[in-house]
């Protein structure tokens, strides 16, 4: 159940929507290599550290950090990990809900057969006129947030379990079927493959490595306490190392498969890989429009993407929701409504970034949406990752760490310790410094 819940958190828009377009904007091959490197050397160790902290503290991340700092006699400043995470959660949930809303809208359009026989031009103009309409984008954002709040209000128990147990495998299966379709029917599979795996450095800028690291954190739900919050539910006898490895492999495979579906379609239809956030919403309707049974499969696909987004969105809000329950002694329902409403409010800025506020820039060249995405994923999450690694590696009472990892062979634990204490925090810091110099 824990693996399913964390996989539900990890697999979401980050894999299906964000990975292909960010890889497309950053030149493909080298980005993918950097991303996989970040998953293996930074992501997995930090995920293990987060689960260790969560299971040792067994509360919301903010209170887990308070308890563990006290037990390890560390400075109370380490509690910042919990606070930063809750803040990042708001920022991420706010724009996540906007994009998930797009997926819901596409679900309905697919079902109505809007994209039957769609070509590149139609798919592009439909996307532009949809996102250009503030009322529609706001409406779908609102609906998604309401659904997420209702499920989150019921707790991390039943609803989540059934959703992940049946829908995740269906999503994987459908994704594989789409890869097969891209391989045999798109006519441009080679090109897509070459784009994702060829070592071309021309579009890989100084910022690209930061983007790769930010994507690794975002896609594994790391650096903000989501995994820590779920770790609080993990039974004593379960293996943390095995769970983290399983989840990271599943998550990476889903992302790569999405890329293998989307890029052949992009090349077959003369689209640009660097089209940005609309990439999935333009290329997939074309694919479904052209394949036999596309209306049915397209509807099913967007339905599953919607579910994958909900299971992720719940986990994004979980650190804040769990904390409000503990702190204010209110019910989960009240807490979920408060957090959901606040994130919805912030999300309005992202919803309007694609239409009314498209000229409003918070950072140079970045709309409200771009800014929320960039700052949370590329700065706050990796920063949270550094702190989590340093805390788990240097401050946390070594006995607690040893106890949590007691099922793993001692060589694995020594390597892990080295990764968590030194390599991961240093790696993140080096990427930050390189980006600043660039
Ligand atoms: N990992 C999720 C995705 O890929 C997003 C997420 C980020 C979830 C941060 C929780 C915390 O869609």
Quickly describe the structure.
With about 450 residues, the chain is mostly helical.
Report on this model:
The protein starts with a helix and ends with a helix. The chain has a single domain (2-437), classed as Amino acid/polyamine transporter I (Up-down Bundle), CATH 1.20.1740. It is mostly helical and 438 residues long. The model has no long low-confidence stretch (mean pLDDT 93). Helix 16 crosses helix 18 (410-437). The chain contains 18 helices and no strands. The protein is globular, with a radius of gyration of 21 Å. 79% of the residues lie in helices and 0% in strands. The protein binds phenylalanine (PHE). Phenylalanine binds next to helix 1, helix 2, helix 10 and helix 14.
List keywords for this structure.
mainly alpha, 438 residues, Amino acid/polyamine transporter I, 18 helices, binds phenylalanine
Fraction of residues in β-strands: under 5%
Count all strands and give the number.
0
Termini separation? 44 Å
Count of individual domains: 1
* Major sheet attributes: none
Radius of gyration: 21 Å
Order of helices and strands: HHHHHHHHHHHHHHHHHH
Just give the CATH class. Mainly Alpha
Helical content class:
over 70%
Task: Give the SSE layout.
Elements: H1 2-10, H2 13-25, H3 29-57, H4 61-72, H5 80-111, H6 120-131, H7 134-153, H8 158-185, H9 189-197, H10 206-219, H11 226-231, H12 240-268, H13 279-290, H14 294-328, H15 332-352, H16 368-395, H17 398-404, H18 410-437
Phenylalanine binds next to helix 1, helix 2, helix 10 and helix 14.
């Amino acid at each position: 159940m824990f693996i399913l819940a964390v996989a539900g958190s990890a697999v979401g828009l980050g894999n299906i929507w964000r990975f292909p377009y960010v890889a497309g904007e950053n030149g493909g091959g080298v980005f993918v290599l950097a991303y996989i490197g970040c998953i293996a050397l930074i992501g997995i160790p930090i995920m293990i550290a987060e689960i260790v902290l969560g299971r040792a503290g067994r509360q919301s991340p903010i209170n887990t950090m308070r308890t563990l700092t006290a037990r390890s006699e560390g400075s109370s400043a380490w509690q910042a990990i919990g606070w930063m995470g809750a803040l990042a959660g708001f920022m991420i949930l706010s724009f996540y809900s906007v994009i998930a809303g797009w997926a819901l809208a596409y679900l309905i359009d697919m079902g109505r057969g809007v994209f039957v026989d769609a070509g590149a031009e139609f798919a592009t103009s439909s996307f532009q006129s949809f996102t250009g309409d503030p009322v529609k984008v706001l409406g779908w954002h609102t609906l998604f947030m309401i659904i997420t709040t209702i499920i989150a209000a019921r707790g991390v128990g039943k609803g989540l379990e059934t959703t992940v147990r049946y829908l995740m495998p269906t999503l994987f299966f459908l994704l594989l079927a789409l890869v097969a379709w891209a391989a045999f029917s798109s006519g441009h599979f080679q090109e897509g493959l070459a784009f994702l795996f060829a070592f071309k450095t021309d579009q890989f800028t100084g910022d690209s490595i930061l983007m790769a690291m930010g994507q690794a954190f975002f896609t594994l739900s790391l650096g903000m306490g989501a995994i820590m919050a779920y770790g609080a539910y993990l039974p004593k006898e379960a293996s943390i190392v095995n769970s983290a490895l399983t989840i990271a492999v599943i998550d990476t495979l889903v992302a790569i498969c999405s890329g293998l579906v989307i890029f052949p379609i992009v090349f077959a239809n003369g689209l640009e890989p660097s089209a940005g956030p609309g990439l999935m919403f333009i290329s997939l309707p074309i694919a479904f429009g052209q394949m036999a049974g596309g209306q049915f499969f397209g509807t099913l696909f967007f339905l599953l993407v919607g579910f994958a987004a909900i299971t992720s969105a719940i986990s994004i809000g979980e650190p804040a929701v769990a904390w409000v329950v503990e702190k204010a002694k209110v019910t989960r329902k009240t807490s979920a409504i408060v957090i959901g409403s606040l994130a919805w409010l912030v999300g309005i800025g992202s919803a309007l970034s694609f239409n009314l506020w498209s000229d409003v820039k918070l950072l140079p060249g970045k709309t409200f949406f771009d800014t929320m995405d960039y700052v949370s994923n590329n700065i706050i999450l990796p920063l949270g990752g550094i702190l989590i690694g340093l805390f788990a590696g240097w401050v946390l009472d070594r006995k607690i760490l040893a106890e949590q990892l007691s099922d793993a062979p001692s060589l694995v634990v020594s390597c892990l310790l080295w990764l968590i204490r030194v390599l991961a925090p240093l790696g993140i810091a080096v990427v930050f410094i390189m980006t600043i110099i660039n």
